[in-house]
Amino acid sequence: MEEQADIQQIKPPTNAKGPVGWLRENLFNTWYNALLTCVALLFLYFTFKGILTWAFTEAEWNVIPANLQLFAIGPYPRDQVFRIWICLYILTGLLGLSAGIWRGIVQRWTIVVGSIFLVFLVIPFEIVPRQDSNYVSIEFRFNLIWLIFESRRWLLGNIAILIVTFFLGNRISRLRPWILGGWILSFPIIMFVLHGFGENAVHTSLWGGLMLTLILAVVGIAVSFPLGVFLALCRQSKLPAIKWVSIFYIETVRGVPLITILFMGNTLITIFIPYFTIDQVLKMMVAITLFSAAYMAENVRGGLQSIPRGQHEAAQAVGLNYVQSMLFVVLPQALRAVIPAIVGQFIALFKDTSLVSIIGLIDLLGVAKSILAEWLGRHVEVYLFIALIYFIFCFAMSKVSQEIEAELGVGKR
Amino acid sequence: MRKLGFRLLVLVLAFLMVSPLLADNHGDSILDKVKKRGRLICGVNKELPGFGYLGQDGEWKGFDVDFGRAIAAAVLGDSSKVEFRSLKAADRFPALQTGEIDVLIRNTTWTLTRDTANGADFCPPNFYDGQGFMLRKGLEITSLKDLDGATIGVTAGSTTELNLADKMRTLGIKVESIVFEETETLYQSYDQGRCDAVTSDKSQLIARKQSLKNPDEHIILDVTISKEPLAPVTVHGDNKWNDVVSWVVYATFFAEEHGITKAKVKNLKSDNPEIQRFLGETGNIGEQLGLPADWARNAIGAVGHYGEIFERNLTPLGLPRGVNKPWTEGGLLYAMPFR
Q1: pLDDT interval class at A12 (50, 70, 90)
Q2: What is the pLDDT of residues A73-87, one digit of tens each?
Q3: A310 touching B, CB under 8 A?
Q4: Quick one: CA dihedral A405, A407, A411, A413, positive or negative?
Q5: Where are the alpha helices (H) located in A255-338, listed in sequence order?
Q6: What is the pTM (predicted TM-score) of this model?
Q7: pLDDT band at B33; cut points 50, 70, 90
Q8: pLDDT band at residue B275, thresholds of 50, 70 and 90?
Q9: Would you say B100 and B116 are in contact if contact means Cβ atoms under 8 Å apart?
C-alpha cells in the first residue's frame, strides 16, 4: 500500500490520449489523411453554411404552421373532425390495454406515444392564420389557459384514456384474447366511423393528408402480410395448379412497376365493370396490397427455405398435420428469420403510398402539392416538412423492428 | 350437384362477359343522375394556382371550382352539394367516359381531337389562355426572332413543348429547350438563371412571376403563340347535360353583361324582359333545360357573375382580364340570347 503512494500520477501526454489523441490517430495520421480531412471539413462547412443560412434567413416557414390541419387531414370536413378523434380514442384505448398486458416493447412505445401527446398538449401556443386578400401570414398567440383550444381538449381526453386503459390492462390480464380481436375489429370500425352514413357521410374523396397516407399504409401492411404468407405457402405447394398460379401471380406483379398497377387499378377496372363505380381509395388500397403481397411472399419464401427439412419431419413425427406443423413449428421460425426483410418491405410500402398522389388522391404528398398552388415558391420548405414526416414514421418502424429482433434473439442463435 | 354448380359458374361468367354490352346508358341523362344522387361530382385540378386547390380550411377554392359550385347551385339549388375529385391530366378523360365524374372543369383546352376522338363534348370556354414567354429584362429581346440561340424551359408532356417546336421551326430559328418534369422546378431553375426564358400559358407565367426573387426584373413578351380556350367538358352524346353546363357558363357571362352581382341577384326585380326570363320570373327557360325556374338566380347567388369569379380567384395572382372580358368591352365572352 505504501509503495503505491510513492508512484507519481503522471497524466498521459495530451497529444496521445483523449480527443486530441483520437484526432491525431484517426484524422491526421498521414499527410494525405490530413489533407482529406481538411477538404472534407471545408466541404461540410460550405454545405452547412448554405443550408443554415437558407433555413434561418431565406426560408419562410410560416407555410407549415398555417397549413398544419391541411397536412394532417386534407379536405376532411372540419365540422366532422370529431370522428377522427373518436378513431384516435379507439386506437389509444387499445394501445393502453395492450401496454398494460404485454409490457416490454409495447409498453416502451406506448410511453413514447404518450409523451408525444403530452408535448403537443403543453405547447401553450395557438396558431392563428391571418389572410388578407392575397397575403397570408400567421400569428402565434400565447395563451396560458390553452385548454380553450378544441384540439387540446380532445388531446387531453386521449391522454386520460391512455392512462386509464393502461391500468385496466395491468389489472385484468384475462382481457388478452379480447384485445387481439379488438385490434382486428378496430379497423372496420374506424373505417365506418370515418365514413359515417346518411346526410353527414364523408365520402372517401374527402379523405386526405397524413390520415389517408396512414390508412393506405396500415391496410397495405395488415392485409399484404397474411396474403404474402399464403402466397409463399402456395408457391411451395405440391399441387401443380396452385403452385403455378401462385408463381405466375408473384412473378407478374414483381415484373411491373407499382405506378402501372395503380394506373390500371384506377382506369381499367372502371372500364371493365361499367355498372359500379368502385371507390377510388378502395381501388388504391387493393392495388397497393396486391403489389406488396407479391414481394412479401418472396420474403417469406426466403424464410421458409432456411428451415431445415428436419423441422417438418419432426413436426410430422409428433403427429401434427400440415396446418399445425406450419403454424406452430415452421412459420414462427421462418418469419423470425426474415423480420428485417419484412419490415424493409413495410417501410417501402409506406413510402410508396405517396404514388397515389399521381392518380389524384390527396395524400400527404398530394396535399403538399395543393398547398404549393396557394403558397407559390415555398416548395423547398413544404417538401422538407413532409420528408421529415415520412422519415419519422419510417424510422419508428425500423426502430420497432430492431427491438423485436433483439427481444426474439434473432441472429444470436 | 357438382355438374350443376359448374354450369351455374359458366352461366355467371358468360353473363359477366356480355354484361357490358347490356349496359344501358342511353335513357338516363347525367342531369337525372345528378338530381337523383342529390350531389354533383366535378373533376378539378388540385394544384393549379388560382384555378383549383385546397384552401387552409380544407375547402376547395379556385376559378374552375367556382364554376362547379355554380352548376351545383343551378341544378340542385345548393352550391355546397358538389363533390370535387382531383384529377391528373392523364386520367381526366377516362374519368369522364366511365362516369366517375359528371363534369370536368380542369383547365382543359378545347381541341378537335379531344372533341372527336376522346369522347368529350365541350361547353363554352370559361377562360381564354395562350402560350407566352417570360424572360429577363436586360436581354433586349422584344420579338420571338431575338430568341435565336436562347435556352428555353418548358414542362414535359404538355402541348407547350410541341407548340414551342412548331413555332421555332416556322420562324426558322434555333433554340435549346430544357424540359422539366415539375412546374416548381421549372421556375426555380429559371430564377437561378439556368435558362434564358420560360414558355407556358400566360396565366401561369403571370402567376409565377410574383413568386420569383425579383419579379420586376422579368417581363412577359407581348406575343401569344397558341390558342388555349379552356372549357368545361361533359361526356360525348349527353346533349341535355351539355346544355345545362353550357347555359350555366352563359349565365355567368350574361349576369356580368347586365351587372347582376352576387349581392344584388337575391332580391333583384327588373323591368327588362330578358332579365325577367333569366331570373325565371317569366317564361320557361328553366323548364326547357330541365332545371328549376330560379336556376340562374341560384347560380349567380352562389358564386357571382363572371367578373366576380375572376376577381376573387385570378386578380389576386396579378392576372389582367385581357380577352376574358364581355364582348361589349371588346372581350370574347359572349352569352347567347336567353330567349
Answers
A1: low
A2: 999 988 888 999 999
A3: no
A4: negative
A5: 258-263, 269-272, 280-305, 309-317, 322-325, 331-337
A6: 0.86
A7: very high
A8: very high
A9: no
Q: Residue B85 and residue A133: Cβ atoms within 8 Å?
A: no
Question: Whole-angstrom Cα distance, residue B149 to residue B196?
Answer: 10
Sequence-distant contacts of B23-32: CB under 8 A, at least 24 apart: B23/A274, B23/A275, B25/A274, B25/B99, B29/B238, B29/B240, B29/B241, B29/B290, B30/B99, B30/B102, B30/B103, B30/B234, B30/B235, B30/B238, B30/B241, B31/B75, B31/B238, B31/B240, B31/B241, B31/B244, B31/B290
- The CB density around residue B279, as the number of other CB atoms within 10 Å, is 24
Checking if the pLDDT of A194 tops 90, the result is yes
| Sheet containing B131-136, strands listed edge to edge, beginning at the edge strand earlier in sequence | B176-180, B151-155, B197-201, B131-136, B218-220
* Cβ contact B98–A370 (<8 Å): no
Q: Could you tell me if B86 lies within 8 Å of chain A, comparing CB atoms?
A: yes
Instruction: Quote the minimal CA–CA distance from B44 to chain A in Å.
Output: 10
Query: Mean pLDDT in chain A?
Result: 86
Q: Do B85 and A360 touch (CB under 8 A)?
A: yes
* Residue that is written with C-alpha cell 351545383 in the block: B72
- Tell me the domain boundaries of chain A: 13-58, 77-201, 204-413
pLDDT at A413: 54
Position A42 confidence tier, pLDDT thresholds 50, 70, 90 = very high
CB atoms within 10 A of CB A138: 18
Which of A297, A291, A116 is closest to A220 using CA atoms?
A291
A220: which 3 cell numbers?
A: 397495405
Nearest chain B residue to A80 by CA distance is B58
Cβ atoms of B282 and B338 closer than 8 Å: no
User: Look-up: residue for cell 381531337?
Assistant: B113
pLDDT at position B160: 86
Query: Which of A273, A398, A411 is closest to A338 using CA atoms?
Result: A411
Which domains can be identified in chain B, with CATH numbers? 30-128+229-329 (3.40.190.10), 131-226 (3.40.190.10)
Top-level CATH class of A204-413?
mainly alpha
Judged against a pLDDT cut of 80, whether residue A361 lies above it is answered with yes
Highest mean pLDDT among A118-122, A143-147, B324-328: B324-328
Task: Identify the weakest region by mean pLDDT among A30-34, B25-29, B85-89.
Answer: B25-29
Task: Give me the residue label for grid cell 427439412.
Answer: A309
Is the ipTM above a cut-off of 0.90? no
d(CA A234, CA A243): 6
Mean local confidence (pLDDT), B159-172: 89
**Preferred mutation among A275, A280, A376 to probe B, highest tally of B CBs within 10 A:** A376
- Could you tell me which chain A residue has the CA closest to the CA of B85? A205
Q: Is B188 exposed, middle or buried (0-12, 13-18, 19+ CB in 10 A)?
A: middle
Joined together, the cell numbers standing for residue B280 give 325565371
Average pLDDT on B212-236 reads 91
Facing residue for B57 by CB, picked from A78, A360, A376: A78
Query: B61 and A78: CB-CB below 8 Å?
Result: no
In order, the DSSP letters of B239-270 are HHHHHHHHHHHHHHHHHHHTT--HHHHTT---
Q: Cell numbers 396486391 label which residue? A: A290
Model pLDDT for residues A85-114, shown as the tens digit of each residue: 999 999 999 999 998 888 788 888 999 999
At residue B21, does pLDDT exceed 50?
A: no
Interface of A with B in 75-104 (CB under 8 A): 75-78
Residue A362, classed as helix, strand or coil, is coil
